TrEMBL record:
This is Glycosyltransferase. Keywords: Carbohydrate metabolism, Glucose metabolism, Glycosyltransferase, Transferase. The keyword Mitochondrion does not apply. GO terms for biological process: glucose metabolic process. The lineage of its organism: Bacteria, Pseudomonadati, Bacteroidota, Flavobacteriia, Flavobacteriales. It is an enzyme of class 2 (transferase). InterPro entries: Glyco_trans_1, Trehalose_Metab_GTase, TreT_GT1. It comes from Lentiprolixibacter aurantiacus.
Length: 486
């Protein structure tokens, strides 16, 4: 069990200095005024399984900074798990909550699950005091809640970031497997009402995830800074007179032969001066990378069949690029499936023609350096023509919200979480079936061919994020929920 130190970051006055956020912050301060008193003397403990990568690690630092500014104690603990059997099991649980995989969870699985969690108990008990509030995120540390409760008088919340709207035998099996732990928890928090299993309905609050508009991932970057970051990290090769310090890591990319290198084999400033379609996610089958690559290839191939090679649409598609970014596996230890999924994409990429290989970049991002990773993601999103989240299943896709905040037009699948974020044709496009390659290719082409619509979706996207998905709405919901626990 490790306590994570959160570095200083934006203060409330920094947010207020932004015209579009000024009213939001003032309203927030009014709305949360009662909570510091209600939570006095208690510490809120956030417990999850990783300090880097994924939505939870992304959101916690900014939330914690603001909550602390209000005078409320909040800390973050990460379980130590280094155990392959445990990671394999928790990945299976994760997939099963999304409805995929096999419905077989055994008592041996339970033994691994509880053994690894029990190893974290002693340390947890050194930190946590009677009266505190403990929030356990996602399935990995779920059994730990009950273990803590045997020793300390705490209130326990389980925060589930994933889910499936419909039941199937796999979801039933996984909820059965997890149900012995439910009784330990006072309350539950989900991202969407439709994800909540029937037996938890009465004890559950809905809090959608949110972004921090001023974090390194989301703060404003001017074009010159974007160029500097992309060049310093090795994503674009041209030598520009940039003023930024050398990045510790160059982003590695997949070479045509499937090896990893930091050399950009395309000498042009490709993703800046060409229309670019971008998806950044963990290498997870449920993120729909493979289908997106296939759709992009289909769009390109169909484009070459067009007879009018002088049309603007033909030229846009001809020059279009696809960038797929995800964690460099060198820095990720808790995701056994990630490398497998990346390898599948590499095989798909290796088999392509030279032209298509030049049009597609598979980037491995330096997740071990959160600031560099965040700035690279920020610069990539800001340089993208369209940001895609083609998830087969998605609890709530932070990447879509990040792109909308940056006024980038988004193309998302009809996965439940994404449908709650994006309004079709108002602030982006929803392509219902992420596995329908022809339909996805058509959506991409339509979006690439409609700059005016893209501008509108992008603009409306930012408004939607300000109104619904900033950390201020999220913190208010959390504090109200936690202070109601008696
Ligand atoms: N992310 C990142 N680098 C990567 C891949 C993902 O910084 O190589 C970030 C991404 O920008 C987002 C988060 O990880 O902030 C992923 O959250 P999301 O809700 O989209 O998916 P999850 O990983 O939680 O399923």
């Amino acid at each position: 069990m490790k306590k994570i130190i959160v570095k200083p970051g934006a203060k409330l006055d920094d947010y207020k200095a932004y015209g579009t956020l000024y009213n939001l912050v003032n309203q927030f301060l009014e709305d949360v005024a009662e909570f510091p008193d209600k939570l006095r003397g208690k510490t809120i403990w956030m417990i999850n399984s990783t300090a880097i990568g994924g939505g939870v690690a992304e959101m916690l630092p900014s939330q914690m900074r603001i909550i602390r500014t209000l005078g409320i104690n909040i800390e973050w603990l990460v379980i130590e798990a280094r155990d392959e059997a445990f990671f394999n099991l928790t990945k299976r649980i994760h997939n099963a909550i999304h409805g995929s995989g096999k419905p077989n969870f055994t008592e041996d699985d339970r033994e691994v699950y509880e053994r690894v969690n029990a190893r974290n108990l002693e340390k947890a008990l050194e930190y946590i005091e009677d009266g505190d509030l403990v929030v356990i995120h996602d399935p990995q540390p779920m059994p730990l809640g009950g273990m803590i409760r045997k020793h300390k008088k705490v209130k326990l919340v389980w925060r589930c970031h994933i889910g499936l709207e419909t039941e199937n035998e796999v979801t039933r099996a996984v909820w059965d497997f997890l149900s012995p732990y439910f009784a330990d928890y006072d309350r539950f928090v989900y991202s969407l009402a439709s994800y909540v299993p029937e037996i938890l309905k009465d004890k559950t609050a809905i809090i959608p995830p949110a972004i921090d508009p001023l974090s390194h991932k989301n703060r404003m970057l001017w074009m010159s800074k974007c160029l500097g970051i992309l060049q310093q990290s090795g994503i674009i090769r041209e030598q520009l007179p940039v003023l930024y310090p050398n990045y510790k890591h160059k982003v590695r990319r997949v070479m045509p032969d499937g090896s990893f290198d930091t050399v950009n084999h395309d000498s042009e400033l490709d993703i800046i001066f060409h229309p670019t379609v971008l998806q950044i996610s963990r290498w997870d089958r449920l993120k729909g990378f493979k289908e997106l690559m296939e759709a992009f290839i289909l769009m390109k191939r169909d484009n070459e069949k067009k007879t009018d090679k002088s049309s603007l649409v033909y030229r846009r598609i001809r020059h279009c690029r696809l960038t797929l970014g995800g964690p460099d596996p060198a820095f990720v230890s808790d995701d056994p499936e990630g490398m497998e999924v990346l390898n599948e994409l590499i095989e798909q990429y290796k088999a392509l023609s030279v032209d298509l290989q030049r049009a597609i970049a598979l980037l491995l991002l330096p997740l071990d350096n959160p600031k560099e990773n965040a700035l690279i993601v920020n610069a990539l999103q800001r340089s993208a023509t369209i940001v895609v989240q083609n998830s087969i299943q998605e609890g709530f896709g932070l990447t879509a919200t990040e792109a909308m905040w940056k006024q980038r037009p988004v193309l998302v699948s009809g996965a439940a979480g994404l449908r709650a974020q994006v309004q079709h044709d108002i602030n982006g496009r929803i392509n219902p079936d992420p596995t329908n390659i022809a339909q996805l290719a058509k959506c991409l082409e339509e979006m690439l061919s409609n700059p005016k619509e893209r501008d509108k979706w992008g603009f409306n996207g930012q408004v939607r994020v300000i109104n619904n998905f900033t950390l201020f709405s999220q913190i208010k919901a959390w504090l109200s929920h936690l202070s109601s626990l008696e």
